[in-house]
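Q: What does the assembled structure look like for these inputs?
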Amino acid sequence: MRDMCYYYSQLGTDERSEFLIHMATSLSTNHQAVQELIQQKPQADTNSVDLDAQLLIWEDRLRHAVQPPHHWVFSQVSRLSGGVKFLVDMRQDLLSTLFSKTLDPSNSAALKTLDSTLRELLSLWFTVGLLNVQRITWESPCNMLQKVSEYEAVHPVRNWTDLKRRVGPYRRCFIFTHSCMPKEPLVVLHIFLTNEIPDSMAKILQTSRSSSIDETSVSKDSEDPSLINTAIFYSITSTQKGLQGIELGNYLIKKVVHEMKAEFPSMSQFSTLSPIPGFVKWLNGMMARAQRGDAHIFTETEVNALQIFLEVDSSPEVYERLRKLFTTNGWIEELDVVETLEAPLMRLCAYYLFTEKRRNYTLDSVANFHLKNGAVMWRINWLADRSPRGLANSCGIMVNYRYFLEECECNSRTYLETMKVIASDTVTFLAKAAEDIIKK
Amino acid sequence: MRDMCYYYSQLGTDERSEFLIHMATSLSTNHQAVQELIQQKPQADTNSVDLDAQLLIWEDRLRHAVQPPHHWVFSQVSRLSGGVKFLVDMRQDLLSTLFSKTLDPSNSAALKTLDSTLRELLSLWFTVGLLNVQRITWESPCNMLQKVSEYEAVHPVRNWTDLKRRVGPYRRCFIFTHSCMPKEPLVVLHIFLTNEIPDSMAKILQTSRSSSIDETSVSKDSEDPSLINTAIFYSITSTQKGLQGIELGNYLIKKVVHEMKAEFPSMSQFSTLSPIPGFVKWLNGMMARAQRGDAHIFTETEVNALQIFLEVDSSPEVYERLRKLFTTNGWIEELDVVETLEAPLMRLCAYYLFTEKRRNYTLDSVANFHLKNGAVMWRINWLADRSPRGLANSCGIMVNYRYFLEECECNSRTYLETMKVIASDTVTFLAKAAEDIIKK
Amino acid sequence: MRDMCYYYSQLGTDERSEFLIHMATSLSTNHQAVQELIQQKPQADTNSVDLDAQLLIWEDRLRHAVQPPHHWVFSQVSRLSGGVKFLVDMRQDLLSTLFSKTLDPSNSAALKTLDSTLRELLSLWFTVGLLNVQRITWESPCNMLQKVSEYEAVHPVRNWTDLKRRVGPYRRCFIFTHSCMPKEPLVVLHIFLTNEIPDSMAKILQTSRSSSIDETSVSKDSEDPSLINTAIFYSITSTQKGLQGIELGNYLIKKVVHEMKAEFPSMSQFSTLSPIPGFVKWLNGMMARAQRGDAHIFTETEVNALQIFLEVDSSPEVYERLRKLFTTNGWIEELDVVETLEAPLMRLCAYYLFTEKRRNYTLDSVANFHLKNGAVMWRINWLADRSPRGLANSCGIMVNYRYFLEECECNSRTYLETMKVIASDTVTFLAKAAEDIIKK
Amino acid sequence: MRDMCYYYSQLGTDERSEFLIHMATSLSTNHQAVQELIQQKPQADTNSVDLDAQLLIWEDRLRHAVQPPHHWVFSQVSRLSGGVKFLVDMRQDLLSTLFSKTLDPSNSAALKTLDSTLRELLSLWFTVGLLNVQRITWESPCNMLQKVSEYEAVHPVRNWTDLKRRVGPYRRCFIFTHSCMPKEPLVVLHIFLTNEIPDSMAKILQTSRSSSIDETSVSKDSEDPSLINTAIFYSITSTQKGLQGIELGNYLIKKVVHEMKAEFPSMSQFSTLSPIPGFVKWLNGMMARAQRGDAHIFTETEVNALQIFLEVDSSPEVYERLRKLFTTNGWIEELDVVETLEAPLMRLCAYYLFTEKRRNYTLDSVANFHLKNGAVMWRINWLADRSPRGLANSCGIMVNYRYFLEECECNSRTYLETMKVIASDTVTFLAKAAEDIIKK
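A:
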């Protein structure tokens, strides 16, 4: 088994795909055996008590028969030292094989079964009891801080000074590790401690304290607890692609909220300041439709104003021009355009977040994550993230998802069962306004 | 889920049994759903590639259908803090319900399915990667030492001085813990460091060093590595009844052998000095048969000698008398009897260990454990354990199972596949001698 | 230097004494050199600025000349690993040589100088910054708990169950260790957590919680913080005789009070329940004087009552009888005697604690320790310690010294500067009453 | 006392100097009291035994009288938490006051006494038993690695990648910390592991392994012990100016050599590759003298060759030109000059290191440090350090001091007692050659 793992680790990308396909097909369930077992099903002519017991035994055998042999292989691998980590990495290869390859349907089905087995096993191993929350500070091991820095996906770390600030006063950085791979952060969560829910990243990233906190009253290395009643989750990153679909982030948020309450008993507000990764992509689709006359997204007044500021002559040209504009970040400097766009983009963004769904979940993946956790869609913030990434993804708009501890569980259930998004009145109002125009 | 666990923990023994029966029956597989799914099996009239993919998908659905709902319940419980430990304890209740109750067949079958689910899940969680080996010394936490003392099943710890000695010089004590329950030793292993394989417990328990080591050359607190080339595993205890059937002991032995080799590079002999828990019980059975004339176990000369020393007139009376004798420990003081019994009991014990099987495994559970690990049945030792327990279980006989590192894996496979017991020539010879007499 | 230490450690008691005397005399200050240096003192005929500088340089040289060579030896020893611990142990030998030997005056003076050098050095090394407070629980290393048990001087630990209780719920046990000898407790402090200042050891030692706390409301392993507002220091032990005269206990009390306040913010009462080691010895002296008619200690009524209950005819016989009585513990069972003695003994004990002095400090060493720390002599408790030791030392009387945090520093200074004992009105009143009778 | 410390920490540089002068003068020894005590010296007319004892007591009193009151202040400060660190920092201020100020003689003498007291106390506290050696790796706390990087004085760390390399494979980094200030490295020692004594820094700094080790045989993260038999101490930095004169570096080297031997039992060579901080300064002095005709440093042939390559007409101009040349680093590119200078500079450097003394010690401070530790001056290396600093200080020359473990103690004593420098034949030969020319 150890040899097999070593052999696999030496393979290149394509060879690994072939290996996985081979494994998925050759170590798959024995159809014949299942078929035979089905024909042995105990029949009703025996007395009923006996029948029940026999049925249970038969089902037990059936259960083993439909269990594909790769299940046994995976559980053997897990017994090796480093085995669970190996399986996490193998699943990453498996997922990229599944998504990137032109597979014939039977291979694809076999790989999906393989992935399903692996995901089930991993979700058993990555259970909460085996996960450890750890706070990261400037006194944490250097290799851990290096990883925290490298994994940061939402707001990239510029240098070690930047990193030191992110684990310094008025900040908290927590990671989840697993007993099997104690030096590997699985999820990284960054928190900003302040006294109000911020409406832009600038307040979080560019100062070592919220601008609403008076500079003079703060010593360099320490925090004044009286200035802290709000925890902002401003970055949450899952680091292991091989754990996709196995929810860890929400556990981390819950555990961390607990720790924050213990450290600051007067902590009363928990919120995120989150990116909206899919807004511009969706908006471009809407503008294409609007350009073709298939949809309304702006009011007449807005279209007129945009014609003037964008110096174009017709409504289709407005959409044409805007789509070009959004491919670069220059528009942010043209104050007229920015001002004119604020109302319609905020409105459309609310619609995108609140109303647009895919397979019963919100289209936006970040929104879906927090809504599943039971958060409330609280406030949409204009020009909250002026970084290139922020402008490219969401025209700089960000959103606060707020966690009301007592209501989380109830909200979560409502969302999962009824697809209803829990949002503040402001967000709901904006989304309705957009809907009215779109449906017009 | 948490409420359910709390509720359960408040129940009495009988109520727990009822709870488990209820859980086993009401949360069992839906027979109807399985039946319907079976009837939806894709048929061969579709083209073969498609059929294959459809079969895989159908098997996937079947797999979920035969998975009993309690599987989901258990995996949810594992997500609670303390959840895995709860399941270990629950399985202990489940096993005692299964073994001690007069159950009707259908309840029994349902409970077996429940146990099977639970055992599979536990064996996934108690995988090696999540187990930690820890050395216990007199500097270990007191509560841990207290547990090591209380759990000791093979050679009970008399007091704290005794305990201190067992973790002191020329000794090693290792425990296995699980990341989920880090303060709970799952397996405890005691080792004695010496320069020859001992033939009695006295050498291990009554001195702080092997009698073969010169007292004057040893300082009180430390060891002389030049006097150490042999590690004797003289006690191995599994503490969690709820983990029955999930092998941990052999992993611990392997890891510990590794650590011993690292600490003492010249360590060349690894052996146990093990009890033989079932010998006297088996011997009584044999003597009853011999008394009825159904079996031969002693030679004529032996029977004659025993008649004299036991002061009885006939051969049946010898067996009658011996069985009475073995209910108390007094016979150990009668030197004539002891001397006369040595040869036949050693021979019969070899036969019991080497030849007697049940369901393809050796009848003796300790022998089976070490043979499965790949050890060799090395030497049988007369009057090696004069404690009441030792005399009652095995007339004081003990056995060394020796671990030859390079051959363990091969031996283990041979034993598991062919049922052949690997033993030294001496043991084999004794067993054959007994066999010849018995078959006579 | 290392050889010298090894050599010393191999010596017997008498040889060590000789070694120390040799060291004290042969490595003592060079009288001649000092004399010569004195004669080189710069004279006033040089100009004054220069003179000052020259004086300083001369004093510097004088300082080195009067520094005995053993000072250098000790500081070299301290540079060895284990050196500081060696010096602590050597000082223990030194003190016992100083106290137990019939020394001629010049050896005695030399040894005193040696001790003075050693004490000064040790008091520099055993400075607070190098001391660590550690809480001891049942999860602490076993060897540490064993030492805590063995060192307990005030209320001997009976067995491991007793020990487990003393580090369990409603208790705290703290130790001071030094960076040089991290596995050696220097001071051990036991605390009892309750809701009132107890008047007897029974409440502390015999239950796992104060009898004033309702049993039913307390779970086995944990504490109810709402029932805790009082910390009772019921045992404080200095373990290293070689550190005599170097105060560590008061630092420990201060640090521990700090930790208690942090753990229980509503903690409002800090007190001891302390033994009175010298009371009976002092009382016997007083009674001898009273018997001779040199002092009054009882009122006439008391003497009469005692004559009856002790069945003697005269006042001198009362004292005679009492002194005999106090050599055993039987009197505690004779209720009449006990009742009759309560008033006079409580009064005399107050007088002994409050009024009796030696060299400006209270005669009682425990009282002196707490008064120096700034505690208040709070309450004297009749029959608070019925153990043989308690009866033999103080007729079972114990005393509470209470620590009022804000006043400690002021009290301490008052006591050290004016010799005034700060005591409650009750204690003062009792002491005055005794004084009136004694002076009569 | 705490207030005094806080007050001091708030002062500016000049105010601190004033504070220290005030402390040195006002808390100095009471001259009058000393004088009076001297006059009370016991006289010889008492009997001799008594006299001896009286003398000891009188000396004891004298010892206290000449002890300046600031000694007491310092020992009180040490009792505060953070007190010892405060005194280390205060001594740094004191030393800079002593060295940088134009002080009148009496203030200077008083400050020297203050420093002497402080240095003695610090050398007691910074004794080996209280120092801890710690290995620093990339898994050490980030703040510690940041300090290691910032303190590096010999070969500055360029960035985090550079730092990661210096604590990575084929390297060791050790620090000394003190129990009082566990997060502050006092001494930092960098080691390079290789199989030969390197003759240039390039081999150490620019590769992750010695160029003599075959690249292909080395995996990225680990070391091949068979390629390691030599430990090169290539940087040793004392970080606390306030601990000047208190030797810690040699203890660290000794402890580390011990750890290296334990990790690599076949380690056979220990050496430094050390800078020569004062060579160019000394050389410039020599060249000035040579220019004036007061000394010979080059042979005639050398002077002639230099005239040609430096394009000057006379011998004085050679010195003039060379001194200018050495102010910049350009000459290193002129191969002719470099080649011509090698022989004379190597010779003169040997002379500087081996022969030049100040107050009985070698003039070069680094040489003095290693010679005091017992190292041998082993080999002088041409162009071993081409960094700007290396060229400016020593024309790029570096020297290996080699540690032969068995001879260190003996060498150290020889050097300290006889001033004799232990050097290899090569170094001795070079130094003699230079001496012959200089004395000519």
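Chain D is about 55% helix and 10% strand.
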